[in-house]
Every structure is written in C-alpha cells, then in structure tokens.
Amino acid sequence: MIVELGHYALVLGFALALAQMLVPFVGLRNNDARFIAVAPSLSIVVFIAISIAFAALTWAYVVSDFSVKNVWENSFSTKPLLYKFTGVWGNHEGSMLLWVLILALFGALVAIFGNNLPPRLKAGVLATQGTITAAFTAFLLLTSNPFIRLVPAPIEGRDLNPILQDIGLAIHPPLLYLGYVGFSICFSFAITALIEGRIDAAWARWVRPWTLTAWLFLTAGISMGSYWAYYELGWGGWWFWDPVENASFMPWLIGTALLHSALVMEKREAMKVWTILLSILAFSFALLGTFLVRSGVLTSVHSFATDPTRGLFILAILIAFIGGALILFGLRASTLRNGGMFHPISREGALVLNNLFLTTATATVFVGTLYPLFIEALFGEKISVGEPYFNMTFGPLMIPLLIAVPFGPFLAWKRGNLYGAFERLWVAAGLSLLVALVFAYVLYQAPILASFGIALAFWLIFGAIADIWAKAGLPKAKPAVAWARLKGLPRSSWGTALAHAGVGITTLGIVSVTTFEQETVLTMAPGETTQFVGYDMRFDSLEARQGPNFVYDHAVFTISKEGQTIGVVEPENRVYVASRMPTTEAGIMTMVFNQYYVSLGNKIEGTDQIVVRVWWKPMVTLIWWGTVFMTIGGVVSLSDRRLRIGAPKKIKPRRVDVVVGGPAQ
C-alpha cells in the first residue's frame, strides 16, 4: 500500500509540476496577478508530493520489500541498514528520483526564501523550474519507474553493487546532485531574464546566492567522490580523468566562472550577456553529465542505465532545454545592454581573465571527454583520451590563472594599479619562494618544476592572507584598530580568502603527491617484514572472516620505525555473497598530512603468500583539506547578509508627531 501511495504521489507530482509550468507562464503572458501569485504554492506542493514518493521508496528498501523490482535488483535482506538507505540512490531509478526531489526542493526554496524577488521574476523562475521538474518526472514515469511490482515476489534480492556499499555513497551522490541540480535555478533566472528583457545589478545579486549554494555543494560532492574512489577502489589514485569525473568537473569550472562574472555584473553592471550565457552553460553541462551517466554510452561504476530508450529520452530533454535556451539567448542577447566600461588592468579585468581561463579549460576537458565518443559513433573505433592529454592541455591553463588569483582583490574597480598591487604582495611572493625552496629542494631534492608548483601553492595561500592583512590596515594600523577592521569585514571577504587559500592547499597536495609519491609491489607471507621509505612493515596475520553480506580476507600490518610502533593498517579483500563480486578495501594510516597506503592483491596458489601493493603518499590529504576550506569559504560567503537581499527597497518614512508646548497626547 505504501509503495502504491509513493507511485501515486509521483504521478501527482508530475501533474502539479505541469501546473507549476503552465499557470505562472499564463499569468506572465496575460499580466494576471492571480496566476502569478499561485507559483510559490504550486512549487511547495510539488516538493511535498515528490518527497512522499521518495519516502515510500526508502521505506521499501528499509523493510526489504522485494516485491518492488527496484528493491529486488539493488538490495539484500542482510545488508546493513545504512546501505539500505543509501541503496535508494545507488541505482538508476532511485538516483533519478533523488534528482527530481532536489529539483523540487530548489523550487520550494525559491518559493519560501525568495520574498525579496519581484513577483514576475519569481513566477518566471518557478515556472521554468516546474518545466524542468515535469520533464524529468515524465522521464521517471515513462522509462524508469522505481515502483514497478514483481508477482510473485522473490524471497531474496540481488544486492547492491558491492563497491557502492560504503559510507562515501551516503554522502557523495546527494552532495553532487545538490550541486548539479542547484545550477537549474541559475538557468531558470537566466531564461526568465531573457523572456522579461530585464537584467541588471539587482538580478546578479539575486542569482549569486543560488550560484554559490550550487557551487559549494558541487565542490563538496566532487571532493567526497574523489576520496571515496581513492580509498574504496584500492588503486591508490585520487583522480583518473574518467569521463564521469569530468562530467561533474565541467559544471564546477563553469560555475566558478559564473560566480566571478556575476560579481562584476553586480558591482559594475558589466558582462551582462556573458553572465547570462554562463548561467545557461552551467546547467547545460550538468544535463550533459546526466546524459553521459544515464544513457549507457559510458561504462563506469557511476553509470547505471543501459536501456537505449532512456538515453534517447534524456537526449531529447538535453536538446530541448539546451537548444531552446541557446536559441532564446541568440534571439534576445542583442537587446541587452552590456553596461559599464572598465580598464583591462582593474578588478573587472582580473575577473574577465579568470573567466577566460576557466572557460577555455572547460573546453579542453569537454573535447577530451567527448572526442572518443564521437569517434566511436562515427567510425566505430574505440580510442581513449587519458591523463597525458589533460596534463598537457588543462595544466598549462591553470598556471597563469593561479598566478593571477592573488592580484584580483588588490586591484581597484574600473581602473587598477598592477604595480601597486604587487607592492602589497611582494612579501607573499618572497615567502612563497623561500618556503618552496626549503620544502621542495632542501628537504626533498625536488626538480625545478615541482619547486615552482609548490611556490605557486604557497603564493595562493600567502596571497589570501595578505588580502586580509591589508584590509586590516596592517602593519601600519594599531592592533585595536586592525582588530576592529577585521571584525567589520564583510563575511564575503573572509569567504573569498578561505576559498583562495583552499585552492592553494589543494594545489600543494597535488604537486607534493604527484612528485614525491613512492610505490612498491611485493609478495609477503604472515610473519615477514619489509622496509619501505624508512618504515618497517610487518605482516602480522591474514585470516578469513564473515561480514553481514560478504566474506573477506582480513590482513594486519604493523608499521614501525627504529623499533617503535607507528600504527597498524588493515586492508581487506571482500567477496559479496549475492553477486559473488570481489572488492578491495585499502588499509590507510594517516600521519599528519601524509598517508601510508596498503592494498591487497591475489593470493599465490599453493603458498601462504599474497601480493601487496604499498604507497607512500606525502601531503596527499591536503588535496581534500583544500576543498574543505573552499566549501567553508562558500558557506561563510553565503552567510553574508548582502548575498541574501535583492535590490534596495525604499523605506517608508516613519510618522513623527511634532509636539508644541507640551507632551504628545
């Protein structure tokens, strides 16, 4: 009964989404305030209906209702409860239901928290959001219904893909979807602005918080996915330039450009047409990622769908929304005035440079990701574009961008002084070179390019500190004055500094682990000891154990140095009962920012030996600590009250009683 209720709620959600699409558009066309005013209420009830559907599917997973085909295909009665919950979105149908739920959520958030928006703009945004929600709900109902029943009901399920049975799956997809789908609001704002013909500084101020929200969730989602693949797959890498990884990275790059472009538009009313285009492209790349994952054109752990009908349906959605938006943009862009002018050497100029490099970098990733698919589709030949291509194209674009980042906050709006900005950054530059020299060359005897990369990382970190230092008036200001200035700084200034420092921290981690990582592969038997990078690693034991829905070999290694125990790592090889699929669980020991990483291979037949792969990964955790700083920076900026208000509102003059000759009566 609960499953049927969920199905009916999904159908109702589709009908209400159609109403959310049509009623406000009719109101806008006829200038009918009653139809315009109904948009927020419709958005909220759509979210409620989709929430009921999602809750019903979740209940079916929790109670192991194998009469539901989706549950039977992706669950198992003895699976831990946590993975019964996460199994809801560990498959195609459930993950698309989560996608639609988040679409409805963002529409409801605009309805609830968009009271500062002009009624026509708010109605247009919600109507566009309703159109997207209706399209994806139709996709669910027609090709990917998660509520299909099986008669008779099977006794046991097939179980979830074993490598998805991890705590990372509980976090990674929801965060990623909040980022992906969050850009739909920016898209809706852009479409409404093009239809209404109104785009100004107030529009940029309204769209920035939604862009920032999507960006910070996408940052956290990509970071969590990277770390999950790093420790779960046992391959020792943190990024593989996999097409599905790239599918999430491209909207992040465009979203970063959009954040900076919207800032220029808000401050100077410049780059209007470009900001609108970026708003469209950010969600377009999110839709492209959905097509790549859901269409079956890629084979990946991230990919679920193999039915060509689903791929064609998503392709139709992609063509309709992206093609329609770009056609509308082409028709209306010429009617939009670009706004204020500025000198190339200015803060606006720095942000334009930022946009130039980010969009070009996105184009290189786009070509490297889709080129093999085009070749296969046209000529039937399978080719791969791997790490060398991306390192040779993406890397060189990032170097000048990262060099330029610290200059931006020190340049004035409209016309800046590059030499004056460097005068305020020379201490940061000197410290960066000094620290890089000591860290890279003296301690690790690193090559020149690695030393330069480390200097670049510290340049970003010290540049962010210099920004706050300068805004406090230090070193000239007295401590009390400096402290008062720091307390009075807008939160967006702190958020910007944290995000830029986070980029530097991540860069430091990438350069360090890429340059100084060491690896060895050997065979060991229990009781044997080997030495690696100055540490002794003793193989203590290897025993077979029973998990809740898997059996596994559990190994214990003790890491010591000069006879003193440093820690223990416990890698595993698992085989899941239902699917008979093997997985590897890496054993990782973290020492401050460094990690000792151990992964088990196959057993050697006829012996008690097993293949062991060991990595020493210096500074590797800084890769993810940097993204934590970026995310925190986004949250801090989002808490700035200036990002939660729209255009200034006129304040009604208060009534003042003029009293003459005595107290007021």
Task: Give short descriptive properties of this protein.
alpha+beta; four-stranded antiparallel beta sheet; six-stranded antiparallel beta sheet; 665 residues; disordered C terminus; 61% helix
Measured between the Cα atoms of the first and last residue, the distance is 68 Å
Number of helices: 20
Over the alpha carbons, how many angstroms does the gyration radius reach?
Answer: 28 Å
Question: Low-confidence stretches at least 5 residues in length (pLDDT < 50)?
Answer: 300-305, 646-653, 655-665
Shape: globular
- Main β-sheet description: 6 strands, antiparallel
Helix share bin: 55-70%
What percent strand?
5-15%
Helix/strand class: alpha+beta
| Oligomeric state of the chains present here | single chain
**Nearest-integer average pLDDT:** 89
